[in-house]
Amino acid sequence: MAMSAQEIEDLLRETFPEAKIAITDLAGDGNHYAAEIIDESFRGKNRVQQQRAVYAALKGRMDGPSGDLHALALTTKAPD
């Protein structure tokens, strides 16, 4: 099952309400996206910690072959 960019953003907004979020559909298939998330909560965290927080915010939607989202290329950082 595919997801829309808006569904991804809605899930991320629940955890990162003040974040700057940009979602790009990379393949036009609803399964391959890129996301840029800029949020103060990432300050002081390494890249792995930041990306784990994003995956947690997706609430299992990327889990294994039955997940709704196949691929998500992440760019995460704290604001400048």
From TrEMBL:
Native source organism of the sequence: Limimaricola variabilis
Family label: Belongs to the BolA/IbaG family.
Pfam families: BolA
UniProt xrefs under SUPFAM superfamilies: BolA-like (SSF82657)
Protein's UniProt name: Stress-induced morphogen
